[in-house]
Known about the structure:
The protein is of the alpha+beta class. It has helices at residues 39-50, 55-58, 65-77, 134-148, 163-172; strands at 8-14, 29-33, 87-92, 102-112, 118-125, 153-159.
Amino acid sequence: MGLTYFKRLRMEIDLAGRQLASVAPPNEYRFVGWNEGLLETHAETKYLSFRSEIDSNVFPCLGEYSGCVRLMHEIRQKPGFLPEATWLIARQNPARPGSDDLEYCGTIQGIIDRNGIGAVQNLGVVPDRRGHGLGRALMCQALDGFQRVGLERVFLEVTCQNEAAIRLYRQLGFRK
């Protein structure tokens, strides 16, 4: 049995004194803030975002819906869970115009770790919605939430092969 190693980077951003650029979602999209009733929606969106990606090899739970539900429960139960940095991004379901039915396209969760530093958990955008600025908008929304509660540093971990994510994080000010 072979073992595959996936190198991961820890990237950080210093929010102290930083004026974050407000990034609104594209016109047809909107942010949906955290509420308990959306836990499984976060899990499903996370699953749809990661199931065919390298991160589902690194973290097998991301490749299974039930694993994503367990992961969301674990994130939610952490003492440092931060609703202000936990978001979904959605658009009206194009199959049901005029309804309140939403199509969830991206998710991000934030926590405060035991050292008092913000930690981004699993920024994900479903594959057919990538390239529309949704990941950037979600990250900026989460960073604003971290900053609003007074945090000065935020970190994340990313698989080195995920070049698009690393490029986005660097553009936003994250550094190794």
